[in-house]
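Final report, Chapter 2: Outcomes

The project's central promise was a pipeline that accepts a single protein chain and returns its three-dimensional structure in a standardized token representation, suitable for archiving and comparison. That pipeline is now operational. To close this chapter, we reproduce one record exactly as it appears in the project archive, with the input sequence first and the structure output second.
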Amino acid sequence: MKDLQLFEIRETDYRLAKQVRLSIANLIYSKLPGYVFSFCNEKTIFLPKRGSVTYVVGEDLKRILGYAKCHESNPGLIAAASRLPSLDSKKVIDANGVSVKRQDLSRFDGYNRYRGQGKTLCIGLCETFKQRKGIGSFMLEQIKQKEYELIELESLDQNSTMFYEKMGFIHTGLYTWNGHGEDLRYPVMVWNK
């Protein structure tokens, strides 16, 4: 995979967002060999929302190979800057199963190194359409070079956790869960500049 580029789509980039949605829809409908769509389908093709940014990777916007749907915030105290969606639904716990609130974040690994000088980014969903080709690594490395002081995400499985660790993310000691069972815990991981 050479000549990859990272494209940034903001909430106000309606024309660009529409172009990306059409490109992804074409990929889904054409069923090209080697392409896998785990989260993205014709009904969930993204539209950037307020405070969100979507990063798209590909040779150009017609040959998209992956994307990351994100939310960013301005510098400030980590309790206000974190965009982890599970915090608002009170489904973040520590290793002992105790519920964690926004104001407690600064006690946990990675979050305790946030100085409040740069923006934070929460990667809500990250997907590549061709596996094991270096696309996800390229995308994360490019995102890490942006102005973010802290990047946070939920890892959905063990393979993802190992991948994010290789990319420099650390486990915070926090987990998100669905509120219905102990076995559906997802590690919260962060990367600090």
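Archive annotation: The mean pLDDT is 86.
This record, like all others produced under the grant, will remain available to the consortium after the project formally closes.
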